[in-house]
Amino acid sequence: MGDTIVFIPDHRARAVRHLLAQWRCQPNQTAIVQALAGAVQSIENDCFSLLVSTTFTAASDRDLDYWGLLVGEPRGALGDVDYRVMIGARILVNKSISTRDEIITIAQIITAPSTIVHRDIYPACFSLDVLRGSAGFMSDARARRVARLLRSIKPAGVCMIIVESVEGYFGFANDPDASPLDVGVWSRAL
Description:
The chain is α+β, with helices and mostly antiparallel strands. The protein has seven helices and four strands. α5 (80-95) runs parallel beside α7 (140-153).
């Protein structure tokens, strides 16, 4: 079984089953055992409910704030869904050794729905293009949070440029997704 915690929904029936046969036939004995097992069942229900409600995937409000405090990610003005994404990304940032793949994975998670394009720039720089397509630009608060998280994972001494683009952005002739200069939308640096 290992680390798996199993909920036991039938303490009363189990307690009666474990009685000696001579006591199972006595209604008073069975009633006492069922009453005691009912109290155990109540404790089991409360403890399991507390355990489940505070797990990362099920936590909300104050419990989610504790998770953020634990990993070092402040809530700010984020709702539970966005905050859970940022906490998950912070966990990855805290465990990261700042490889290119880790940075791209984290960028993909915190900017979803998006496509991340990575370009190396000689001698010690790289750019991340966050292509959000028809999803539109992220809110300013979320964009600042994304930039802060990605800066915290960037290797020391390396320049990082983050650009967010939406569908129809300005671009150069060799970029098939870009619009010509007279009809495109400006991208923004994060």
